[in-house]
Design goal:
The strands form 3 sheets. This protein has a 7-stranded mixed sheet, sandwiched between helices. A 4-stranded mixed sheet has the order 1-2-3-12, with helices on one face. A 3-stranded antiparallel sheet has the order 11-14-13, covered by helices on one side. The chain is globular, with a radius of gyration of 21 Å. The longest helix is centred in the last third of the chain and has 20 residues. The chain has 14 helices and 14 strands. The protein starts with a helix and ends with a helix. By secondary structure, it is of the alpha/beta class. It has 2 domains: about 120 residues, Alpha-Beta Complex (Aspartate Aminotransferase, domain 1), CATH 3.90.1150.10; about 230 residues, Type I PLP-dependent aspartate aminotransferase-like (Major domain) (Aspartate Aminotransferase, domain 2, 3-Layer(aba) Sandwich), CATH 3.40.640. Helices cover about 40% and strands about 20% of the residues.
């Protein structure tokens, strides 16, 4: 009979055989580049979409103006004890004002956000209707809730409406859950259509995760909801700071009753240490400047369109409508080999495999940044 370690080793061997075994990469960060061993590679796997994380002038300006009170490296407590600092309140007021909402609430991470909000608001009298391709953190949040859940086919809104028609009279509340830019395919949800759909069914609320859109889309960088002019119709307008905003944490912009309810019921807010004031101050610093970053957004959009066009010309399936550009390969082992080939040629691109994506859809996921040069993009296209 096998002991526990032997059983775990056996399961890991199955992952190896399928090409799905993962290890933590050991890389040295060199601005826009990374080095693994002796090989420097252009980083095309980061979520630093606007290039702010490597912008030394921004970092210098922040360090020159940040106050001593906001420079603390730890909050040392949950927000409901002594971990709620003035900078947390300032950031939440800034977010609420920016989105034109009554209130906002900040969390320690996107995972805390999605695994905390849904269990807090979705009880046994709630039905969650979630897009089939929503992020793993949303799926985990749904599983932690007491709600019934049905996952509709990806962006199949005819099926979604059929489910609303069938079930809207059976539940006190229905939550439609979607991303705005989907993290693996890079396609974009028609949020205005979803707002119109939820408004036809009383008791229906809309939960949108803008993790990959905040900073990148919209005239002021407020995401796809701003771009599609439907912010007021979204009940839980969520996003993260760890991608284009180049910081850490997450937020929801919402009504005041929703904010107060989450403060009292959301376990991942109540039972975790608050973000350090220094990180929150940096987030505030960046969020204030998002409206002035249109040139970076335009640059990123141009680069993304060029890569999507090139991939399609080379015969690769590419469902993207954004700066997340997948190159679908299919089998996991072939995808790993293709990633290793590109790394040898100086491009740090990583394979995405099951369970992150469905079986048979393993892909290379190019995560573009506005600081990528035209010459660098041409070199990449030449070696694909």
């Amino acid at each position: 009979m096998m002991d526990n370690d032997q059983m775990l080793t056996r399961d890991l061997e199955v992952l190896r055989e399928k090409g799905n075994f993962r290890q933590l990469p050991s890389v040295e960060h060199l601005g826009r580049w990374v080095r693994s061993g002796e090989q420097p590679m252009l980083n095309l796997s980061s979520n630093d979409y606007l290039g702010l994380a490597t912008d030394e002038s921004l970092r210098k300006a922040f360090m020159e103006e940040v106050s001593a009170e906001d420079s603390l490296l730890s909050s040392s407590s949950s927000r409901l004890l002594t971990g709620n600092f003035a900078v947390h309140d300032r950031l939440e007021r800034l977010l609420a004002e920016s989105f034109g909402k009554e209130a906002a609430l900040v969390f320690s991470s996107g995972y805390h956000m999605n695994t905390g909000i849904l269990p807090a608001v979705a009880d046994a009298h709630t039905l969650i209707l979630a897009d089939k391709l929503v992020h793993a953190s949303l799926i985990d949040g749904i599983r932690l809730s007491a709600a019934k859940c049905i996952r509709f086919r990806h962006q199949d809104y005819a099926q979604l409406e059929a489910l609303l028609q069938k079930h809207h009279a059976d539940f006190h509340r229905i939550l439609i859950v979607t991303e705005s830019i989907f993290s693996m395919d890079g396609d974009v949800a028609p949020l205005q259509q979803l707002v119109e759909l939820k408004q036809r069914y009383p008791g229906t609320m809309l939960y949108v995760d803008e993790a990959h859109a905040i900073g990148v889309r919209g005239q002021n960088g407020l995401g796809v909801a701003e771009e599609q002019a439907c912010i007021p119709g979204i009940d839980f307008l969520c996003g993260t700071f760890g991608k284009a905003v180049a910081s850490v944490g997450a937020y929801v912009a919402c009504s005041l009753p929703v904010r107060n309810y989450l403060i009292n019921r959301m376990r991942t807010l109540i039972f975790t240490t608050a973000l350090p004031p220094l990180n929150v101050a940096w987030t505030e610093f960046i969020v204030k400047r998002l409206p002035d970053m249109n040139e970076r957004r335009k640059r990123l959009a141009t680069l993304s369109e060029q890569l999507r066009t090139a991939l399609k010309k080379k015969g690769y399936a590419c469902p993207s409508e954004s700066h997340i550009v997948p190159m679908l390969v299919g089998a996991s082992k072939e995808t790993v080999l293709k990633a290793e080939e590109l790394q040898r040629k100086g491009f740090y691109v990583l394979p995405v495999r099951p369970p992150t994506v469905p079986e048979g859809t393993s892909r290379l996921r190019f995560s573009l940044t506005a600081t990528l040069s035209s010459g660098e993009l041409e070199q990449l296209i030449d070696v694909l």
